[in-house]
Specification:
This protein is an alpha+beta fold and about 600 residues long. The protein has three domains: about 210 residues, 2-Layer Sandwich (BirA Bifunctional Protein, domain 2); about 150 residues, YbaK protein; about 90 residues, Rossmann fold (3-Layer(aba) Sandwich). Helix content is about 25%, strand content about 30%. The protein has 14 helices and 31 strands. A hairpin with a 5-residue loop joins strand 30 and strand 31. It is globular and about 95 Å long. The protein binds adenosine-5'-triphosphate and magnesium ion.
């Protein structure tokens, strides 16, 4: 059925809503696609729901095409399965929790690994049942700390999540590859500009994980790509190439020096250049210093663990990279009280002399990969006003391991080919991930193999942000006048605008609408009698249907006007050939 603006449940706004910062959010509200209920929670109005359903259909078709089967789990879930995998605690404040009348804990599902795993365990028991891929398109709930940008980061949102179940790694690789191909087709159809980047594999080291990022200047994700080879990675997943060990036998023994009033890297570097000029004349720079940053990790069970990160003094710790490394722990600042409680820490002068699980502070000490065997550093000597020089990594100190927490900069070496990296921003639209056996083990999902032995099933998980896609496409397809939908997900194929109060105009617009409908074309008809042509044109630009047909003054001469919303191009076509012309325009001829 055509949508008629005379009765459509829609009010367009001329002004941007006060809480909307990004264009997609502003335009989706102004053009009457969504309405805010509370932060991160939105109502889909008829136009918005049309777009959402079209996105869902594309996602569904591509999932079905790789043989995945659709099912639907509840959003309201019991605590126990999430308790079994540890996620009841790990999710912390991010999950919505409720208690039923009998006092039993429940949650609103943030993602459904547990439920899928249990469903397969419930129904299947043999290798003959595998491989299996199942999926749902379902409403998820996450109490995001910063719901943002309308549908882009909601607290209630629609996700497609699928899961694959295989007997072995080779099977998993195949399921993963099929999903990857389905995602490429899906995102191509949705009309995104996107990149596929390596992502954090999480605790199950070595497993494959990639994200599909829509390129967008105001995206929340930063990724880097190599200017030479095909390497691209989410900044969280970038691995710093470990330098070869260097010979440090010529380096004199480490020595502690007086460096009064040098609690910051800048003051230290100035002092070094003044008081300890190097023989070869090279000036000291921040990169010669080893900076030790303290943070407090808060684990899901509430325990607090201090952590020290050692990195070159010219780099900052990147919060997101650090956060990704220590998940599920949260990172908090190491505050004055934390210092006060540990007398061995000389603030501003902390060094490897006290840091480390086996050292006086007992604080776990992780090093940036650049602090590698044989590298020489200036760093804190653990007493105020003192630093140690000629301190050699490996010879004079070691950490408890390495950590990828330092910021990645444009020009840093590509881990794959060594050329320079450059960074850009994007919006995560999809994530494909080789889970391995984490959930199958926790929930005891095993099947009998061909020799009658029990084997743990190997899983993959694959998500797409369906409601986020609506906003993300809007973000990439608009101009100063309004939205400009790609045809595949526009709320209608054609927007017929009847201008003027002449009955013959309205009558013909109705006739044209019915004729197009008869050919399977989705029509939005502006048949409002009260609205002026100017208002109608403005609304048409704002709503963003790709083809606008103006039925008005030209009708007396037997013509209507076809306008391409994207290019702005207009042309007159004869009424007699209007239907075939429009069909050709919308790709239905
Ligand atoms: P992000 O890093 O953006 O928080 P995530 O890594 O938590 O996302 P997944 O758990 O991998 O997301 O979820 C799968 C997909 O669901 C994501 O790729 C994204 O497109 C979408 N998604 C996740 N969180 C939200 C949200 N709060 N609002 C809308 N879509 C979301
Ligand atoms: Mg993700």
């Amino acid at each position: 059925m055509a949508m008629r603006m005379s009765s459509l449940f829609l009010r367009t706004l001329r002004e941007n809503p006060a809480d909307a910062e990004v264009p997609s959010h502003q335009l989706l509200v102004r053009a009457g696609y969504i309405r805010r209920v509370s932060p991160g929670i939105y109502t889909w109005l008829p136009l918005g729901l049309k777009v959402l359903r079209k996105v869902e259909r594309i996602v569904r078709e591509e999932m079905d095409a790789i043989g995945a089967q659709e099912l639907l789990f509840p959003a309201l879930l019991p605590r126990e399965p999430y308790e079994a995998t540890g996620r009841w605690d790990e999710y912390g404040d991010n999950v919505f929790r409720l208690i039923d009348r009998k006092g039993a804990d429940h949650l609103l599902g943030p993602t459904h690994e547990e439920m899928f795993t249990l469903a397969v365990k419930d129904l299947y028991s043999s290798y003959k049942d595998l491989p299996l891929s199942i999926y749902q398109i379902q409403t998820k709930y996450r109490d995001e700390a910063r719901p943002r940008a309308g549908l882009l980061r909601g607290r209630e949102f629609v996700m497609k999540d699928s899961y694959s179940f295989d007997l072995d790694e080779a099977g998993l690789d195949k399921s993963y590859e099929l999903h990857r191909e389905a995602y490429v087709r899906m995102f191509d159809r949705l009309g995104f500009h996107y990149v596929i980047v390596q992502a954090m594999a999480g605790a199950m080291g070595g497993s494959k994980s990639e994200e599909f990022l829509a390129t967008a200047e105001n995206g929340e994700d930063t990724y880097v790509r190599c200017t030479n080879c095909g390497y691209a990675a989410n900044v969280e997943a970038v691995r710093v190439p470990v330098p070869d060990a260097v010979d440090a036998t010529h380096v004199p023994a480490a020595h502690v020096e007086d460096t009064p009033d040098t609690p910051t890297i800048d003051t230290l570097v100035d002092h070094l250049n003044e008081a300890f000029p190097r023989d070869d004349g090279r000036p000291w720079t921040a990169a010669d210093t080893l900076k030790n940053v303290l943070v407090m990790l808060v684990h899901p069970d509430g325990t607090r663990e201090p952590l020290a990160v050692g990195l070159p003094g010219d780099r900052e710790v990147d919060e997101k990279r650090l956060g990704a490394q220590v998940e599920p722990a949260a990172v908090e600042a190491f505050d004055e009280r934390d210092f006060a409680a540990r007398a061995v820490l000389a603030k501003g002068y902390i060094g490897p002399g006290v840091l480390g699980a086996e050292r006086p502070s007992g604080i776990r000490y992780l090093l940036d990969p650049r602090v590698s065997e044989g590298t020489v550093w200036v760093t804190g000597a653990d007493e105020p006003g003192h630093h140690v020089l000629d301190l050699v990594a490996g010879r004079d100190f070691t950490g408890d391991g390495t950590i990828e927490a330092a910021e990645v900069r444009d020009g840093d070496a590509c881990p794959s080919c060594g050329h320079g990296l450059e960074s850009a921003r994007g919006i995560e639209m999809g994530h494909i991930f080789q889970l391995g056996t984490k959930y199958a083990e926790a929930l005891d999902l095993k099947v009998l193999d061909e020799f009658g032995r029990l084997r743990t099933v190997i899983m993959g998980s694959y998500g797409v942000g369906v409601s986020r896609a609506v906003a993300c496409v809007a973000e990439g397809n608009h101009d100063e006048l309004g939205l400009v939908w790609p045809r595949a997900i526009a709320p209608a194929d054609v927007h017929v605008v009847a201008t003027g109060k002449d009955e013959s105009v309205l009558a013909y617009a109705e006739e044209l609408t019915r004729a197009l409908e008869g050919q399977g074309v989705d029509v939005l008809l502006d048949d409002r009698r009260q609205a002026s042509p100017g208002v109608k044109f403005k609304d048409a630009e704002l709503i963003g249907v790709p083809t606008i047909v103006v039925v008005g003054r030209g009708l007396a001469d037997g013509t209507v006007e076809l306008k391409d919303r994207r290019s702005g191009e207009r042309r007159e076509v004869a009424v007699a050939s209007a239907v075939p012309e429009i069909l050709a325009e919308v790709g239905r001829a």
